[in-house]
Each structure stands twice: as C-alpha cells, then as structure tokens.
Amino acid sequence: MAKSDDWQWQIPLGIVGFLFVRAWSDASITRGLRGTIFDTGDADPGTVPADLAADYDARWRAMVVRPERLAAADDVARRMASREARYRAITDPMGVPWYWLAAVHELEHSGRFTTSMVVRDAIDTPPGQPVSDPTITDAQWDDTARALLRGRGLPSWRDWSVAGLLYQWERYNGFGYRTHDVPTPYLWSYSNQYTTGKFIRANVFSPTTVSQQPGAAVLLRRLVDLGAVTV
Questions:
Q1: On the CB side of 33, how many CA atoms lie within 13 Å of its CA?
Q2: Which residues pair with 65 in a beta bridge?
Q3: Which of 13, 22, 59, 165 has a CA between 20 and 30 Å from the CA of residue 126?
Q4: What are the boundaries of each domain within the chain?
C-alpha cells in the first residue's frame, strides 16, 4: 500500500517538476533570442538605476540624428503617430505611454499588426529553424500587445521620464551591449551616439555589423520634434 501511494504522488510531482523546468527553459531561451548576454528580465527595481539614468540623460542631451538617416526615421515616426489612437486604446488604461508600445511594435515587427507581440515558445521550434512570432489576425493583435505590457510589469511602472522610457526599452531588448561597451542600437541607431556593433543572433555579437533600423531614442526625438509627443 505504501508503494502504491508513493507511485500515485510521483506522477503529479513529476508533472510539476517538468512544468517548472519547462517554464525556466522558456524564459532563458526567450532572453537569449533577444540577443542579450545578461538581462534583468522581469526583476524590476521600480526606479532607473542611478548610473543608467545619468547615461541616458547625457546621451539624450548630446544625441543628434544623422542627417542621412533623418528622412527614414521620420517615415517611421509619422507612421507611429498615425496610429496613436489604436495604441492609446491599449496603453492609456494601463498608464503606459502609447509611444513606448509603438516603438517596440516598429522595432520588433516593422509595425505589422499580423504578428504577435508575445514571443513564441522557442522550445517548439525545430533545431536550425529561425524562431518567429506566430501569425495572427489584426483583431487579435491588441490582446497580444496587452499581454506584452502586463508581462513586462509596465502598468506598475511610474517613471515615464526620458530616462524611464529609455530604461524600459533597453530592459526589454536586453543589456548585453553594455558588456561590449557599445551604446545599444535599440536606442541609439541612426544617431551620433551609435556607430557599429550588433548582435546578429542569440548571444553572437558582431563588432562590424551596423543596425539598419532607427533606435527608440531617435524615434522618440523625432516624435517630439514633429510635435506628436511631449516629454
């Protein structure tokens, strides 16, 4: 009888253990796919660390959008602004600036409403195959955007200063560029704050590769200059 009881417990405990390992693996792989070497993940201190805040503020003040990149950056910024109402319907109830979500939508999905804002489970991807987010309908996109904001804990974040915005963008993409002494292109690409260096795949950094998309800080600056937002 004792053996039978032990056996009955082993099954649910085994399932619990499997689910725990699966969840841990999913989180680890997902962070790796973001190109990070280390990542604060969802452990949020509630305020921007002082050293990062000083770095963000200094770079923001010194940032100049490269003239040859200005038109391309403005195209993206204007597309973001044209969709403000849709973004705000999602972000306003959560207390998140619409342009935080809009920038991630552009940088991760080129502004398409047919791919999920939540990264797909990488474990289910066959070895050697690229990981891509699932195709969804336009109507489903809003729910995936809400899931992203909740998953990152952004409804409880209150520091939406420039430094707070930049911190949450970099936190989302990962802090791995700092280990290479490269200002992250996720923020600074298309500006004088970034020249070269990019993660070309999970945890593989190329010092000679140049990002070909505008950084979130550049998009924010163009939105301000175009009169679309005030920070």
A1: 19
A2: 191
A3: 13
A4: 34-225
**198 phi and psi, to 5 degrees?**
-160, 145
Higher pLDDT, 138 or 31: 138
Residue 124 has what DSSP assignment? Answer: G
Residue 92, token pair as written in the block? 């306003």
Residue 202: what pLDDT?
87
Where b means 16+ CB within 10 Å and e means fewer, 175-187 reads: bbbeeeebbbbbb
The CA distance from 180 to 188, in Å, is 15
Residue 41 has pLDDT above 70, yes or no: no
**Does 192 score more than 50 pLDDT?**
yes
Tell me which residue of 222, 170, 161, 162 sits closest to 191, measured CA to CA.
222
Question: What is the Cα–Cα distance from 174 to 164, expressed in whole angstroms?
Answer: 15
C-beta atoms surrounding 5 within 10 Å: 9
Query: What gap in Å lies between CA 24 and CA 18, rounded to an integer?
Result: 10
Q: For residue 204, what are the β-bridge partners?
A: 201
